[in-house]
Design goal:
Number of strands: 18
Strand content: 25-35%
Structural class: mainly beta
Helix content: under 10%
Shape: globular
Order of helices and strands: EEEEEEEEEEEEEEEEEE
Largest sheet: 7 strands, mixed
Strand order of the largest sheet: 2-3-6-9-12-15-18
Length: 203
């Protein structure tokens, strides 16, 4: 709905009878069919004109938010999730799993906020969510958040990213901020098992 004169808010009000509810963990898994998009991002129209908010913390029931997001977006290992082609967008309180391209891309726009999300973790936050179980080398996704040059005042903060095939966070824009993110860990800050061929090694 329209949040104010300029901003549109996508909020959640799911019930335990709705599809995708996981009663064990108190979350909702939303399976994303990227074939409905003709671009390289499943939600290609989100943020096109800017001033759009998608906020998983608006979901009123479910597990305690101190444990993790209540809304899980599960891709089909084909496309990325969001591209913020307009400015002044917010992506907050979501978990991303199984996307085949960049999960969030900021293509040179400004004043975007990406905060309090999980990228590449299982529902419990204890392990890496593999986007292709038959090819674990692909990790949890291609990359997490990519902020391209040309924009400013973009903020990426308090996210957890793990198991990505390429970069977790890439920030090319000027006058932007990467704050208090955790890379390569479980939700509790400990390090999950990493297959030997994917472990970081000194040069």
């Amino acid at each position: 709905y329209q949040y104010d004169d300029e901003t549109y808010l996508i909020s959640f009000d799911l019930d335990t009878d709705d599809p995708g509810y996981n009663a064990t963990n108190g979350v909702w898994v939303i399976d994303v069919d990227s074939s409905r998009s003709d671009g390289i991002f499943a939600f290609r129209d989100f943020g096109t004109y800017g001033h759009a908010i998608i906020d998983g913390t608006t979901q009123p029931i479910g597990r305690d938010l101190s444990i993790g997001p209540r809304i899980i977006l599960r891709g089909d290992n084909d496309k990325g999730a969001f591209t913020l082609t307009g400015g002044s967008n917010i992506i907050r309180g979501l978990a991303f799993q199984g996307f085949g391209d960049r999960m969030v891309s900021v293509p040179g726009t400004s004043d975007n906020l990406i905060e309090d999300n999980w990228f590449g973790l299982t529902i419990t936050g204890t392990e890496v969510y593999l986007r292709d179980a038959e090819d674990p080398g692909k990790g949890s996704g291609e990359s997490g958040i990519y902020v391209q040059s040309g924009g400013s005042n973009n903020t990426v903060q308090s996210n957890i990213l793990a198991g990505l095939d390429q970069g977790a966070i890439a920030m090319d824009g000027d006058d932007s901020f990467v704050l208090s993110n955790t890379v390569g860990t479980r939700s509790d800050g400990t390090v999950p098992y990493v297959r030997p061929e994917r472990q970081c090694r000194p040069n």
